[in-house]
Amino acid sequence: MLFHEPLFALVLFPAFYALYLAINHRERAKKWTLILASIAFYTWGEPLFVPVVLVSAAIDYAISARLAEGHENARRPLLTLGILVNLGILVFYKYADFLIGNFNMLTAPFGTAFPLLHIALPIGVSFVVFEKITYLVDCYRGTTKPARMFSDYCLFVFLFPKLLAGPILKYHEMETQIADPAVVAWLDCKEGFLRFARGMAKKLLIADVVGNFANAVFGTNATNLDAGQAWLGLVCFTLQIYFDFAAYSDMAIGLARMLGFRLKENFMMPYAAHSLTEFWRRWHMSLTSWIREYLYVPLGGNREGEWRTYLNLWICFLASGIWHGASWNFVLWGAYNGLFLTLDRMFLIRLLGRAGAFISVAATLLIVMIGWVIFRTTSIGELTAYLAALVPLGRPGIYLEMTPDVPLTMLIGSFLSLLPATPVFTALQSAYEKNMILRRIAEYGLVALFVIASARAITVPFKPFIYFRF
Amino acid sequence: MSTPPASSAWNRLGLAAASLLLLLPLLTLWNLAAQSFAPKLAVMIGPKLSGVTEAAPPPVWSLLSFADGSLQKGVTNAISNAFPLRPLLIRINNQIRYKLFGNAGATDVITGEHAQLIQRIYIDEYCARNLAAFEPMARDWAAKLKEIQDFYTARGKIFIYLITPSKLAYMPENFVRQLSSCTNSERDRSGTLPLYGRLLKDAGVHVVDAASLIHGLKGKYEIDLFPAGGVHWNAIAVANAEDAILAEINRQAGSAIAPKLSWKYKVVDRAKGTDRDLLDLLNVLSPNARYATARVTYQPAKACDETPVASLKAVMVGDSFAGTLGQTLINDGCLSRLEGYNYLYRGLSAGPGYKTVKDRLTASDILPLRDADIVIIEENESLLPASAHAMEFYRVILGR
Questions:
Q1: Would you tell me which residues 96-115 of chain B have a C-beta closer than 8 angstroms to some C-beta of chain A?
Q2: Residue A413 near residue B109, CB atoms below 8 Å
Q3: Are the C-beta atoms of B155 and B139 separated by less than 8 Å?
Q4: Is A274 one of the catalytic residues?
């Protein structure tokens, strides 16, 4: 069940929220309601995976109590065990077939072939596992105190607003909020709802619209595309991936706020970045910060000399790539990002800095977009064909239907994505913050967008015919 | 973090908000329950939605269906359909999309020039016409039609093969943009019907080519013979086709067993019924049905019960174009005992309103087709040759 589905947004969440508000001042009841609702939420979508998470959470909880104290020689193996259990879950559900497939390919000359497992990937598994590992490492480091009760830890793991697509949380950032859920104030309801509405609008009115065209373009054999179609498809995917992911973060942050929780931001106008380094500080910030804290720094970060820093960056982005999906394209995408981050450190960021804001934003966007081609295509052959299609050689393309809403949506999406890169943005932001009328208009606008987005969500499956013709 | 005191005012506000939030989920639950015992008591806000939809399979309550997610899908569908604001929200969405982009999003209805509506299937069919591929199939189908005809004529019955027109073929100039991506030639598109007419004639099929007739009448009336907001022919076109059918009945009977109709039309600027079927299918908040169409009134020369054809058992196997025609044939053409087999098995229509009297027919339901005195097989030109219902009719009648 996704947040923008009518079942959740219009029926189940309002019903749950009514109950939650009715017990607003009863902390314990609220906490248990939230735990049960969160587990029910995940069980609805992943009934077979929830027991696995519950058992592994119990293991984490048991281990964490011993990680915080005792001798290093005893703590380290426990941490390793905890991490291995969680990585084991991730590898089994997400990477088993990828590993088996590659192993089979390597051993094909010897005639060995293991059957693929065809395990359905549980939605949110990467986020859940990373948060659980974070908890164990933080307990080991002493950054986090072990959860007081198993129920607290369960709430951290299962808290439904962030369960499926983040932001990736750290236990110590949530500890107080989880142990003692705040009384929901009117401002929380309002701000949370407006944030949720923003996410609904981004997802249903922008991401899905351009996404349909992007899917049509990327679903076509790239050798049949002309350069215009290939670039249009790429622009659409660039907008889709941002508005889709940022929308989900908005909805998660908004829902959490409505429940009295504060989650960290996950996106900060990424397409306005002046370099790839800056882009990664603005894009999926909770993952970037996770990789920095739990991988880059332990690898030595930038403390071990220039070349070691480059290597560490590469390792981190290769890991980031493989985290996104079990395919060589994602590994390549990670390597591609690692390459440009290394080039940034060597010279590129300084060069772009001297080139002026327009060129640096445009060049960064181009680098990011080419990266999205690697991300979106599903094989190396498809990738090279698509990159070739982007080169304007005057080759005619096949007919691809673009629904009439795509051009306007592309325009709005591009405007919203790139406005923060313009000099007027700061002035607009300041005027918005100072002017109450503007803020009111924006609030009413978001409510209207919520209605329109809900209307779209409920309409999409409704496909009537005059009569059943065949 | 804001943590206001647990004042009674806040509690009251919280409870009020909670009650309001519960309203829609509770109404949804009520609608779900009402669907099983009293559908009319369901609370749905907004004008009723038009069109038919594929019925989603009901949820199967089992551990297996829960584990594989099909139970969740079924429940999601059921709850979404029972949501009280669903009609209103769908119409809001469609209104916005129609105003902004000229399409209604959830349907396959396409808007051409001058607000002419058409369904995508007609465009797909028109663009797929291919004379070279059509000819052998049509020749084969014409031979089969002749076999059906022989079956009836051997028993002294009247057999008519009726071709009804397609709106797109009638007014392609209103869909130039949509047809610009067709890969076939203009000859393929406009040559199909004349070729088919020749093949039917060569095979000796008793045909009423209402499609060519209506195309030929283009420009002869002050309005088009298809309404802007509908996909089916209007009343003037139906009246012309009816004239041709009754004339063919008389020709085959060798005497005037059916009346010669006298009718007049009036141009009106507000569409109703099938003249706005696609407009209704848009499911927008405020459909604009103010466009020119026609009402036809028939003036009987004599009462139907004095007309021989009224006592004959007539059947018509056809598609949606047969609907208004069947009604008029019963009411004004004196084929009082006409029964319509919609898509052969989908439903049986009869009586003055040509209402569906039975849904989902079985093999035994269609047995009376063999004994009818007048048999009309209707195919729309967009389904040529050998539409599913006509081909099935061939199998049923001739047992092949």
A1: 96-97, 100-103, 105-108
A2: no
A3: no
A4: no
Q: Do A10 and B18 touch (CB under 8 A)?
A: no
Find the helix packing angle between A150-158 and A125-141, rounded to 10°: 140
**pLDDT by position in tens, chain A (length 470):** 889 999 999 999 999 998 898 888 888 899 999 999 999 999 998 898 899 999 999 999 999 988 888 787 888 899 999 999 999 998 998 888 888 888 888 888 887 788 888 888 788 888 899 999 999 999 998 888 899 899 999 999 999 999 887 789 889 888 889 888 888 888 999 999 999 999 999 999 999 999 999 999 999 998 888 899 999 999 999 999 999 999 999 999 999 999 999 999 999 999 999 999 999 999 999 999 999 988 898 888 888 888 888 899 899 999 889 888 888 889 999 999 999 999 998 899 899 989 888 999 999 999 999 999 999 998 889 999 999 999 988 778 777 778 888 999 999 999 999 999 998 999 999 998 999 999 999 999 999 999 999 999 998 876 666 554 43
Q: Provide the terminal-to-terminal Cα distance of chain A, rounded to the nearest Å.
A: 33
Residues constituting chain B: 400
Distances (CA, A) of B230 to A114, B17, B70, B238, B273: 59, 46, 37, 14, 9
- Across the interface, of B18, B80, B93, the residue whose CB is closest to A22 is B18
Q: Which residue of B has its CA nearest to A204?
A: B93
**Contact call for residues A324 and A375 (beta carbons, < 8 A):** yes
Token digits of residue B376 = 């009309």
Count of CB contacts below 8 A, A vs B? 158
B169 in contact with A, Cβ within 8 Å = no
Matching residue, tokens 């051997």: B154
Nearest Cα to Cα of residue A160 among A244, A70, A264, A38: A38
Helix (H) or strand (E) holding A285: helix A285-291
For tokens 């989603």, what's the residue?
Answer: B56
Name the residue ranges covered by the structural domains of chain A: 6-183, 188-423
CA B357 → CA A465, B313, B326, B360, B365, distances in Å? 21, 17, 14, 10, 12
Provide the sign of the torsion angle of the four alpha carbons A163, A166, A170, A174, taken in this order. Answer: negative
Residue B354 in contact with residue B318, Cβ under 8 Å?
Answer: no
Find chain B residues with C-beta within 8 A of A18's C-beta.
Answer: 17-19, 21-22, 25
Domain residue spans of chain B: 22-84, 131-225+243-261+304-398
B62 touches chain A (CB under 8 A): no
Q: Which of B72, B80, B97 sits opposite A461 (nearest CB)?
A: B80
Residue A468 has its nearest CB partner, among B17, B52, B93, at B52
Distance CA(A152)–CA(A28), nearest Å, equals 11
Name the strand (E) or helix (H) holding A137: helix A125-141
What distance in Å separates residue A454's CA from the closest CA in chain B? Answer: 7
Angle between helices A405-418 and A208-218 (to 10 degrees): 110
Q: How far apart are CA B164 and CA B194, in angstroms?
A: 13
Nearest residue of B to residue A188, measured between CA atoms? B2
Q: b/e for A155-165, b at 16 or more Cβ within 10 A?
A: bbbbbbbbbbb
**Alpha-helical regions (H) of chain B:** 8-37, 63-67, 70-82, 86-101, 120-128, 131-153, 167-170, 176-179, 186-203, 210-216, 235-253, 277-281, 322-331, 388-398
Contact list in B for residue A449 (CB cut-off 8 A) is none
Neighbours of A102 (CB within 10 A): 13
Helices within B217-321 (DSSP H only): 235-253, 277-281
Give the separation between CA B135 and CA A329, rounded to whole angstroms: 49
For residue B198, give both structure tokens: 């020749």
Half-sphere exposure of B399 (CA within 13 A, CB side): 3
